[in-house]
Structure formats: structure tokens, C-alpha cells
Write a structure and sequence with these properties.
This protein is mainly alpha-helical. It has a domain at 18-127: Tetratricopeptide repeat domain (Serine Threonine Protein Phosphatase 5, Tetratricopeptide repeat, Alpha Horseshoe), CATH 1.25.40.10. The protein has 22 helices and no strands.
């Protein structure tokens, strides 16, 4: 017998593809759809890998498929509740869908999991700022600047939050840090200039705006803000000249018309001032300050109905506008609407219990209502608040030292 010839069986070994590595490679090349497909294969092989679901969620967001993206992020944090980046991405995706409360909750979880991550703090502070939660926003922003002290946008963000909290010196310091880190960023320098003006250093503020104009002569914000600084300095003629020119050049910018109205008011051209305030409000109906100043100007001319309407609009736009509540209460008292006056004045006191005026006016209303006891208590409280206010002013003056007041810095 001849030797049987055994057939040679060729065994082809097909090496398995590392889909996770393939997904990363495709993502690095900018192939979002290909990367999503690869990570999907990897997730089928390893369905409990939370990071894969996070990657797929990110790519779905890039591909503008937000609902699917959120589903993947939710699966990622379900599989691994300690996956900070998953909570972060989920928060951002929810924010983009206008699910603000849920977004902040997700970012809060990301911060809890990774408290040393400056990006999470920065994004969280921004969300809190946008939703008016200023105290919490300030804490997150301050922590963000500690974690990333050389991040200019974090300092600028802190400045914006402090400005919204009416902590102008804190805002000024934050903006100074932002400008020091990124001196060519005009928006940061513009913010600094405004805070310098607001804190009594108009000359230096103007110098900052002029630095912007050296690089960008047509910068509208800087040009408008120089006129604003001149107003704050009390140079009304110069401000008026600039603002009239700006109003012709930019007829549809509400803040220009508002500032022009302020300059005219300071020149006692009240009728013209009111026209400008009304035009500013036509262009920008949410400008609470314009309603307030229109109301004050109407009050000066004895137009109490317009004052009441303007102050009501001011507090509709900004519920915590204490001076507007005070002025509304004063005007309602003048009209004889005592119950309305009480409500407005009590709100003014709630918002700012450190000003004697609302206490005094409310005391007068209580007198008119025949409540002598309440009136006495309110007059006494007004006197107490006034005494404390004067003591604080004396204390501030005493800290200036024997050398006198400092001269504003100039460049």
C-alpha cells in the first residue's frame, strides 16, 4: 500500500480587533462616526465598561444626537457613579437642552467626585451664575481660581460674579488678574476699565479703554465706555458731546441712548432726557436702570403716574432692585395708595435694611394709617440705622490716615 497522503489543513487565525484602541485612533483622526462605531463594538464586548459609554455619549453629542448622548452618559454614571467625567458630560449635555436644574445637579456630582478639577469648578460656577445663584457661583469660581491660578477666563468669570454681587472691589481685583494673564484680551480689559470707573478711578478706567483703542480703534464698547467714564467723573459736557456722536453712529444701541439721557438729565434738560430713556427702553426693554432713571426724572417733574409705572417696570425686570421698590413706595404714598406703599417699602427694607429712608417713609405711611405705635418703632429704627451708617462712614474716613485721600492713579 502506498502511503496515504494526509490533507494539509490550513488554519487561518483571524486576530481579533482591539475595538477600544481603534475607537481612540479614529477619534484622534476626527472621524466621529467611525469612532462611535468602534466604541460601540467595544461596548458590546465589554458592556460594563463605563468609560466606553461616556466616549460614545461624547461622540453622539458631536454628531448632534443629544438624546442618545444623554442616554449614554446616564448609562456611564449608572455603571460607575465615581466617573467624574461622565457626570460632567451629562451636566453639559443637560444644560444645552435647557434642563438647568438637572445640569447643575450633574455638575455638582462631578465636583463632588473630583473636587480638584478646575474645569468642573469653572463650568459649575458659570451655570450657577446664569441661574442667579450668585453665592454658590462665587464659591465655585473662587475655588476654580485657586486650582488654576493662571487661567485668565476663570479670573474674568470671578470678576463677573463679584460684579453681579455688587462687590465691585472684588470684581476689580479679579479683572486685574485676568488682564495681567492675558493683556491682549480686550473684553477683559474692558471689564477692568468699567470696574475702575465704578470704584472711583475713572481716570485709570479711561486709560484702560484707550489702550484697547490703540489696538482696535473701532472697538465700540471701549468708545462707549469712555463716555460713561466721563459721566462718572462729572465731565458732563465732554460726555454729552461724545454720546451725541455715538448716538448718530450707533442709533440702535440702547446703552448709548441711556447714557445720553443721563448726561442730559445732569444738564437739567429733563424733557430731552426722558425721550432718550424711552428710546433706550424701546431698543432694550429689559434695562431696569433705564426704567428707574426715567421714573426719577418723571418724579422731578411731578409726573407721579409715570414714576409709578416706570418703577413697577423696573422691579418686574429686576425683582431685587431695592431702590426701585423704595421709590415705588414713595410715589404710591404720594398718590394715596397706602397699602401699595406699605408693600413696596417693606420689600425695600427686606432687600436693604441698612438704609434709613424706607424706614422713615414707611413710618409716615403708618402714621397716616393711624398706627402710631408702629410709626414710633419705625422712626426709631430709622434713627438707629442712620446712626450706624454715619459711624461706618467715620470709620472708613479714619482708616485713610494722616496723609489724606489718595490721588487717582493715572497712566
Amino acid at each position: 500500500m502506498g502511503l496515504a497522503i494526509m490533507p494539509i489543513v490550513m488554519m487561518v487565525l483571524v486576530m481579533g480587533i482591539d475595538w477600544a484602541a481603534e475607537g481612540k485612533a479614529r477619534k484622534a483622526r476626527g472621524d466621529a462616526a467611525g469612532a462611535l462605531e468602534a466604541f460601540g463594538e467595544a461596548a458590546r464586548e465589554n458592556p460594563r465598561a463605563a468609560w466606553l459609554h461616556d466616549e460614545m455619549g461624547f461622540l453622539l453629542a458631536v454628531l448632534r444626537r443629544p438624546e442618545e448622548a444623554i442616554g449614554q452618559f446616564e448609562e456611564a454614571v449608572r455603571l460607575d457613579p465615581r466617573l467624574g467625567v461622565g457626570h460632567y458630560h451629562l451636566g453639559v449635555a443637560r444644560w444645552l437642552k435647557q434642563e438647568r436644574e438637572a445640569a447643575i445637579a450633574s455638575l455638582g456630582r462631578a465636583v463632588e467626585v473630583e473636587p480638584g478639577n478646575g474645569e468642573y469648578r469653572y463650568r459649575m460656577a458659570g451655570m450657577l451664575y446664569e441661574t442667579g445663584q450668585l453665592e454658590r457661583a462665587a464659591k465655585e469660581a473662587e475655588m476654580g481660581t485657586r486650582l488654576e491660578p493662571r487661567r485668565a477666563e476663570a479670573w474674568n468669570q470671578l470678576g463677573m460674579i463679584e460684579q453681579a454681587r455688587n462687590r465691585n472691589m472684588g470684581a476689580r481685583k479679579a479683572y486685574e488678574r485676568a488682564v495681567a494673564l492675558r493683556p491682549l484680551e480686550n473684553d477683559y480689559r474692558n471689564n477692568l476699565g468699567l470696574m475702575l470707573v465704578e470704584t472711583g478711578d475713572a481716570a485709570r478706567g479711561i486709560a484702560e479703554f484707550e489702550q484697547i483703542l490703540k489696538r482696535a480703534p473701532g472697538d465700540r464698547s471701549a468708545r462707549i465706555n469712555i463716555a460713561f467714564a466721563l459721566l462718572q467723573k462729572g465731565d458732563y459736557d465732554a460726555a454729552l458731546e461724545r454720546l451725541r456722536g455715538l448716538a448718530k453712529e450707533f442709533p440702535d444701541v440702547g446703552v448709548v441712548r441711556y447714557n445720553l439721557g443721563l448726561a442730559l438729565k445732569q444738564k437739567d434738560e429733563l424733557a430731552e432726557a426722558k425721550k432718550e430713556f424711552r428710546e433706550a427702553l424701546r431698543l432694550q426693554p429689559d434695562m431696569a436702570e433705564a426704567y428707574y432713571t426715567l421714573g426719577i426724572t418723571a418724579w422731578q417733574e411731578g409726573e407721579f403716574e409715570e414714576t409709578i409705572a416706570a418703577m413697577r417696570s423696573a422691579v418686574e425686570q429686576r425683582a431685587e432692585y431695592g431702590p426701585a421698590h423704595y421709590m415705588l413706595g414713595t410715589a404710591l404714598k404720594q398718590k394715596g395708595d397706602l397699602e401699595g406703599a406699605v408693600k413696596a417699602l417693606e420689600e425695600a427694607i427686606r432687600l436693604d435694611p441698612t438704609t434709613p429712608g424706607p424706614f422713615n417713609t414707611l413710618a409716615q405711611v403708618r402714621q397716616q394709617q393711624g398706627d402710631a405705635g408702629a410709626a414710633r418703632e419705625l422712626f426709631a429704627k430709622a434713627a438707629e440705622v442712620k446712626k450706624k451708617l454715619e459711624a461706618d462712614q467715620v470709620r472708613r474716613l479714619s482708616t485713610m490716615g494722616a496723609g489724606g485721600a489718595a490721588m487717582p492713579s493715572r497712566r
